[in-house]
Design goal:
427 residues; alpha/beta; 15 strands; disordered N terminus
Length: 427
């Protein structure tokens, strides 16, 4: 708890669909750093969910940072949430994160604490902002969830496609409602912010849609910060890595693409090449590939850095990509040459063919991997350029510099209090 205050003696309510500890996946990394930044401004009260025992194990860390908190298990199975949502006409995403105990906690905090602002992380949590709350509301959408479901609906068939199209349509309406309710709407990249604005009715809300990118701790994610993972280094080379939350549909599709389409093309010229898929909750279809044709599926690991340190290249063949990919930033920070699709590079304005290598077809990605492996000087030059770009452009302090203004904070007085005011261009 920080002694700093804003809005005289105001406090902040932070709502997140997952506990921001440990910061071991994309959304948690962002929410973790945002929460720490908010706690440096004022006492923060946190309402959030735990997905599994590992999340529950982080409750003590949350308690040390938050003035108060409510951590509830997310126990509603997705099929049950789906049936309930269909019956009620609501999006499945909102129904899955609807919890009576959390609503009670939020009402208690708002009734008993001087809450000057509510920071909402992800659209699923916007349902908890009461209509009668008169303070400032910041909606961190991160990316445009409705567009993601629209893309799922186009790429799938039958009932699942209908469900995804329905989810996209309903979430788009919810996003517009929340943008109208919020003082500021945040998106992770300029491209995502432009897409979000294009999907809003009319243009009156456009000036309240801003970009707040992701950052990375480039001292923690450094080639000098850890030793290579032994299991990785014992595999054949080049050792190619793909990381991510492996129960997330776009990551599953990318991993299957890397294993089934790109790696075989690489191995035609480099027979010893291996692909290492690292991340929690890989589905059965991915696990079944482990040990076959150079593919290794490692699942959840306690620390991603040694695995990145042990790799020779990173491959990120995402076909559906929303926002800024932390997996790309982490690989670059660890000094890896990265071969990635244009979608995976969105929001990362590093120079192509210098700090990373953008290719979209399977053959072009395979050719890039082979070329980098066969030219050690180019590989080393790209790795160094990636590190330099991260150090210059991708720190968390710079990424979150916009936060105080989003909350209405315009400066610090000598007594440690903040004065309040509106962000330029934002009501």
């Amino acid at each position: 708890m920080a002694p700093a205050r804003f809005a005289e003696s105001g406090e902040i309510l932070f709502l997140s669909h997952r506990i921001p500890f440990p910061p071991d996946r994309g959304d948690k990394i962002r929410s973790h750093h945002v929460l720490h930044a908010l706690a440096a401004l004022a006492p923060v009260h946190v309402g959030t969910f735990a997905d599994d025992p590992e999340d529950r194990a982080s409750e003590q860390a949350l308690g040390l940072l938050a003035q108060s908190y409510c951590l509830v298990p997310r126990v509603l199975p997705l099929p049950v949430a789906g049936v309930t949502a269909l019956a009620s006409g609501r999006p499945v995403s909102l129904t899955a994160f609807d919890h009576a105990r959390l609503r009670t906690y939020i009402r208690q905090v708002l009734d008993t604490r001087p809450i000057a602002a509510i920071y909402v992380f992800s659209s699923q949590m916007g349902q908890y902002v009461p209509d009668d709350f008169s303070g400032r509301v910041v909606m961190d959408f991160v990316d445009v969830d409705s567009a993601k479901f629209d893309a799922y609906g186009e790429n799938r068939r039958s009932l699942r496609a209908w469900i995804d199209r329905r989810e996209g349509r309903l979430l788009r309406a919810e996003e517009a409602r929340l943008a109208s309710r919020a003082d500021v709407s945040l998106l992770i990249s300029d491209a995502e912010a432009a897409l979000f604005r294009s999907r809003l009715p009319g243009g009156s809300l456009h000036s309240r849609v801003l970009t707040m990118g992701n950052g990375i701790d480039n001292l923690l994610f450094s080639p000098d910060a850890c030793a290579p993972e032994v299991q990785m280094r014992s595999a054949g080379g080049p050792r190619i890595i793909f990381t991510g939350q492996m129960d997330y549909a776009p990551n599953i599709a990318a991993a299957m693409r890397a294993a089934g389409r790109v790696l075989p093309l690489v191995r035609r010229k480099l027979p010893d090449a291996t692909l290492h898929i690292v991340g929690r909750e890989p589905p059965a279809a991915l696990r079944a590939l482990h040990g076959h044709e150079g593919v290794h599926v490692w699942g959840r690991v306690p620390d991603m850095r040694p695995w990145l340190r042990g790799a020779d290249l990173a491959l990120v063949p995402l076909e559906i990509a929303r926002g800024v990919q932390n997996k790309v930033l982490e690989a670059m920070a660890m000094g890896l040459p990265v071969v990635l699709t244009s979608g995976a590079a969105t929001g990362i304005d590093a120079p192509d063919d210098h700090a990373f290598c953008i290719r979209d077809s399977d053959q072009a990605m395979a050719d890039a991997v082979v070329s980098l492996w066969e030219n050690s000087a180019s590989r080393t030059e790209m790795a160094l350029a990636a590190r330099r770009w991260i150090a210059t452009h991708a720190g968390w302090e710079a990424a979150l510099a916009i936060l105080p203004a989003c909350l209405g904070v315009t400066g610090r007085q000598d007594d440690g209090n903040f004065s309040c005011g509106a962000l330029d261009g934002v009501a």
